[in-house]
């Protein structure tokens, strides 16, 4: 089994690429979605988060992102503490996902921040979904109804695309001109045969 990581900046089209792989029968693990599920449903993880960040970490039984953001945004030490609590639980969950799909020739882990974290060590190869900044901004501003200033803060908090391009094993270009389906089919063929 080959474990392929799929990453890319906000608005690059990671989820779209993963949905094409899913159509080809490839099991896809979305790290961000699973992390959110684990935070709200994994008792031990909830306990650790409350111990570190206080009772306000959960409001009405659900993860209080406003409270956590107010603590970790712009504070690398607190963000590192948060990641040190959440990432091991996600890594264990990913390991179980791989065991569940051990007969599949290829499994995918989709994660926004893969190259920036130890997540890169949980996969065998990494494919970067790349889209020019202007296209990414247009997509996200339409999708999330977010201001350009707020979006730029999010983009600037992520690793620069130029750095990601150097670190990725494969690049899937999502610029609206090259066929995403053809690129995914070609990569799928390359990785499974």
Q: What's the number of extended β-strand segments?
A: 7
Measured distance between first and last alpha carbons: 12 Å
Unreliable stretches covering 5 or more consecutive residues: none
**In the CATH scheme, what's the topology name of the largest domain?**
Rossmann fold
* Count of runs of 4 or more consecutive helical residues: 9
Biggest sheet layout: 5 strands, parallel
Fraction of residues in H or I helices: 55-70%
Strand content: 5-15%
Name the helix and strand elements from N-terminus to C-terminus, one letter apiece. Answer: EHEHHEEHHEEHHHEH
How many domain units? 2
Mean pLDDT: 93
Give the helix/strand class: alpha/beta
The CATH fourth-level homologous superfamily of the largest domain: P-loop containing nucleotide triphosphate hydrolases
- In which order are the strands of the major sheet placed? 2-5-1-6-7
The appropriate CATH architecture of the largest domain is 3-Layer(aba) Sandwich
What is the 3D shape? globular
Structure description:
- The chain has 193 residues and is an alpha/beta fold.
- The chain has 2 domains: 1-27 and 104-193, Rossmann fold (3-Layer(aba) Sandwich); 34-100, Rossmann fold (3-Layer(aba) Sandwich), CATH 3.40.50.300.
- 55% of the residues lie in helices and 15% in strands.
- The chain has helices at residues 14-23, 31-41, 43-53, 65-72, 76-100, 133-144, 148-157, 161-167, 180-192, and strands at 2-7, 28-30, 58-59, 62-63, 106-110, 125-130, 170-173.
- The protein has a 5-stranded parallel β-sheet, with helices on both faces.
- The longest helix is centred in the middle third of the chain and has 25 residues, at 76-100.
- The chain is globular and about 50 Å long.
- It starts with a strand and ends with a helix.
- The model has no long low-confidence stretch (mean pLDDT 93).
């Amino acid at each position: 089994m080959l474990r392929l990581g799929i990453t890319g900046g906000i608005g690059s089209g990671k989820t779209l690429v993963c949905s094409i792989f899913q159509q080809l029968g490839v099991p896809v693990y979305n790290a961000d979605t699973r992390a959110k599920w684990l935070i709200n449903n994994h008792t031990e993880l909830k306990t650790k988060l409350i111990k570190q960040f206080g009772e306000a970490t959960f409001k009405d039984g659900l993860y209080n992102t406003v409270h956590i953001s107010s603590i970790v945004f712009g504070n690398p030490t607190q963000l590192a503490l948060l990641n040190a609590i959440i990432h091991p639980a996600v890594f264990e969950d990913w390991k179980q996902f791989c065991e569940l799909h051990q007969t599949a020739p290829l499994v995918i882990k989709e994660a926004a921040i893969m190259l920036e974290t130890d997540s890169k060590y949980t996969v065998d190869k990494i494919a970067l979904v790349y889209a020019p900044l202007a296209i990414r901004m247009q997509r996200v501003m339409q999708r999330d109804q977010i201001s350009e200033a707020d979006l730029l803060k999010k983009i600037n908090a992520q690793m620069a695309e130029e750095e990601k391009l150097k670190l990725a094993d494969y690049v899937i270009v999502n610029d609206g001109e090259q066929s995403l389906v053809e690129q995914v089919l070609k990569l799928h063929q390359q990785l499974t045969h």
